[in-house]
Specification:
Length: 401
């Protein structure tokens, strides 16, 4: 059965040409093109190519990118050339958007671009440090190892975000359940006793407040939902603004336990990124600048930038970090030992592990505080409503007697 194939090939003059060829199989299509003095770069079923002539609608997640990079690094470490590895990804990746991205990267390589330029042209959402790891890998001839380090760092970032998100699921559900319970009490239970407002000439303040709030909630239910939903929407909108986000982070940073938790997570991320960059022979000043970009807390980022400037001025890394109070005593000692022994990347990995564990301990403390506090507030809210209703009932009975 004859099938139409769409091909991308290079002619004898070195120019790229695109077209269609009819053949009974892929092998026959390639043979036909070779007879025309065309070197086949890409060959696919014409129907499928038409369907995938674009990045697709499905969003590319960080996990999709890590998977693609891991497959790419595995092929490179196995001795496959960069051009062949990228072409293979453009044809066999499970995600349509990733296949399209590697088609763009393959085109850049065919036109004489570097691997770093090919990765940039793919438009995949890489962190900034990936480009520098790729550049260092190309320069050292260890591109596969550099990509593997990039995968490990991205996996570490994903794991930290996932761990934090998963840890907050239960407290968030608990808080939302409490809010919904209190809301249901106000809207459906309290209004049943609103008639007590008319029958009783004088009610205790708490009873009057609860019944009045219930009556208002029942009469203005949509407005109540709007008032409850508006603060989270405003918070998310404010967080999307860079200047406001910095101010919010500064407030969070001053909180007793939460600030310490995020600060430790920042240092762990900084250490891990710096370790990967140093291992791949990225120049230290540039490595410190890129690592500082992974830090969220404004004050922590400022001191790390100061440390980078001190290293640029000639100070040793350990001295610059200690003078600017970037780490703790253990951190300074590990960096100092790493500088003296020539194993700075190993010491930075150890530092990242220490701060990760400390950050996890702080996170557990935050969760330990959130859960009882949420239960306490929910209990206070429900108890207040019940006491208010009971006071209203007893007051009405006293008056009727």
């Amino acid at each position: 059965m004859t099938t139409n194939y769409r091909y991308v090939a290079i002619d004898e003059a070195g120019h790229e040409t695109v077209g269609d060829v009819s053949a009974n199989s892929r092998r026959e299509a390639i043979t036909t093109l070779l007879k025309q003095s065309l070197t086949v770069v890409d060959l696919d079923n014409n129907t499928r190519a038409t369907e995938e002539d674009g990045p697709g609608k499905k969003r590319i997640t960080p996990l999709d990118v890590v998977t693609a990079l891991f497959e790419l690094s595995s092929m490179l470490n196995a001795g496959v050339s960069a051009a062949e590895a990228v072409t293979s990804q453009s044809q066999s990746s499970a995600h349509q958007g990733v296949r399209w991205a590697f088609k763009l990267a393959s085109k850049t390589l065919r036109h004489g671009g570097s691997f770093e330029q090919a990765m940039e042209s793919s438009l995949l959402p890489f962190p900034d440090y990936v480009s520098f790891l790729v550049r260092a890998g190309e320069a050292s001839g260890k591109l596969g190892e550099a990509l593997n380090d990039a995968c490990e760092q991205m996996q570490y970032d994903i794991a930290i975000r996932s761990e934090t998100r998963n840890a907050l699921i239960y407290p968030v559900i608990l808080v939302l359940s409490g809010i919904m319970s209190v809301l249901m009490m106000f809207v459906y239970v309290v209004p049943s006793f609103v008639n007590l407002l008319e029958e009783a000439e004088s009610l205790p303040f708490l009873a009057w407040a609860v019944l009045s709030a219930g009556k208002w909630s029942n009469d203005n239910f949509l407005l109540l939902l709007l008032l409850l939903g508006l603060p989270p929407l405003l918070t998310v909108g404010a967080w999307m603004q860079p200047k406001i986000r910095i101010q919010m982070l500064q407030i969070i940073e001053r909180l007793p336990v939460v600030g310490e938790w995020i600060s430790h997570a920042d240092i762990a991320s900084w250490s891990k990124v710096l370790s990967s960059l140093v291992r791949n022979r990225v120049e230290l000043i540039m490595a410190m600048e890129l690592a500082a970009e992974s830090v969220r807390m404004p004050s922590r980022k400022r001191v790390l930038v100061k440390a980078k400037n001190a290293v640029k001025a000639g100070d040793a890394l350990s001295v610059a970090l200690e003078d600017n109070e970037c780490l703790n005593a253990t951190g300074y000692n590990l960096v100092r030992v790493g500088e003296r022994s020539g194993k700075l990347e190993s010491m930075l990995d150890a530092l990242a592990k220490i701060y990760t564990e400390q950050g996890q301990q702080r996170m557990k403390k935050v969760l330990i505080l959130i859960e009882p506090l949420a239960i306490l507030l929910i209990g206070i809210g429900m108890g207040t409503i019940i006491i208010g209703i009971m006071l209203a009932i007893t007051s009405a009975n006293d008056i009727s007697i």
